[in-house]
């Protein structure tokens, strides 16, 4: 089992703590709409509802949670959560850069 699979059970209880570590607000892709909606932790919670529509770069690789949670993907606000992207990649439905 990899780091992400080990981190998933019970992760709901850690959401507030994980959100406090999310560095999305410092990312060029993040915007005022996402800020006003207090959107964070796209890697777990999934893509931005309607706020983020343009990819201006992703700083997830330097987020402390990338190694802590064993994330292999990025641009979660547009492409979906780590779990969604893993699932889509495994079925060959999306190509992740
Ligand atoms: S990996 Fe990205 S989406 Fe996940 S908490 Fe860090 S900055 Fe936010
Ligand atoms: S998920 Fe990545 S691209 Fe989206 S706002 Fe967070 S750091 Fe930026």
How is the secondary structure organized here?
Elements: H1 3-7, H2 15-21, H3 32-36, H4 42-45, H5 64-69, H6 76-79, H7 82-90
One iron/sulfur cluster (SF4) binds near residues 29, 30, 59 and 76.
Characterization of the model:
41% of the residues lie in helices and 0% in strands. It contains 7 helices and no strands. The longest helix has 9 residues. It is globular and about 40 Å long. With 97 residues, it is mainly α. The chain has one domain. The two termini are 24 Å apart. One iron/sulfur cluster binds next to helix 6.
- Give start-end ranges of low-pLDDT stretches: none
Strand residue content: under 5%
Total separate domains? 1
**Distance from first to last alpha carbon:** 24 Å
The ligands found in this model are: iron/sulfur cluster
Sheet of most strands? none
**Morphology:** globular
Helical amount: 40-55%
Strands, total number: 0
Kindly provide the radius of gyration, computed on alpha-carbon positions and rounded to a whole number of angstroms: 13 Å
Structural class: mainly alpha
Mean pLDDT: 95
Element-by-element helix/strand order: HHHHHHH
Counted by DSSP, the helix tally is: 7
How would you summarize this macromolecular structure in one to three sentences?
The chain is mostly helical. The chain has seven helices and no strands. It has helices at 3-7, 15-21, 32-36, 42-45, 64-69, 76-79, 82-90.
């Amino acid at each position: 089992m990899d780091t992400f699979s080990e981190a998933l059970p019970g992760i709901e209880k850690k959401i507030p703590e994980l959100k406090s570590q999310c560095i999305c607000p410092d990312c060029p892709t993040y915007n005022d709409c996402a800020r006003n909606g207090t959107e964070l932790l796209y890697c777990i919670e999934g893509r931005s509802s309607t706020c983020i529509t343009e990819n201006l770069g992703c700083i997830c690789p330097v987020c402390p949670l990338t190694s802590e949670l064993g994330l292999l993907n990025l641009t979660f606000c547009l492409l979906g959560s780590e779990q969604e992207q893993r699932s889509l990649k495994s079925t060959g439905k999306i190509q992740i850069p």
